[in-house]
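User: Hi! I have a protein structure encoded as tokens and I'd like to know what sequence might fold into it. I'm fairly new to this, so please keep things simple.
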């Protein structure tokens, strides 16, 4: 991680506010997909999780923290603002 100029989480164990965004994402993933599905294989589970993230979570699911827009909409808006600048 050091060679990529990244640092690991410095939060304390059991303190969800230290990583609130990650906690929120994984909570949604578990509640909306993982706990509602029985996967026959790990491969099928991986594919379903990737599909959930790429198709549903980023492109269709509205996020209150983003003004009830999708992450894809916010990202496209940011890209347009950067191109106009």
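Assistant: Happy to help. Inverse folding works backwards from shape to sequence: for each of the 85 positions I chose a residue that suits the local structure. Here it is:
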């Amino acid at each position: 991680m050091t060679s990529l100029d990244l640092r690991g989480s410095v939060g304390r164990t059991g303190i969800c506010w230290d990583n609130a965004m990650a906690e929120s994402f994984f909570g949604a993933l578990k509640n909306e997909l993982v706990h509602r599905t029985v996967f026959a294989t790990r491969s099928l589970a991986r594919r379903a999780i990737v599909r959930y993230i790429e198709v549903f979570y980023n492109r269709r699911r509205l996020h209150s923290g983003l003004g009830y827009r999708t992450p894809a909409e916010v990202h496209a808006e940011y890209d347009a603002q950067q191109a106009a600048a």
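A useful reference point when you look it over: The chain has one domain: 19-84. Feel free to ask if any position seems puzzling.
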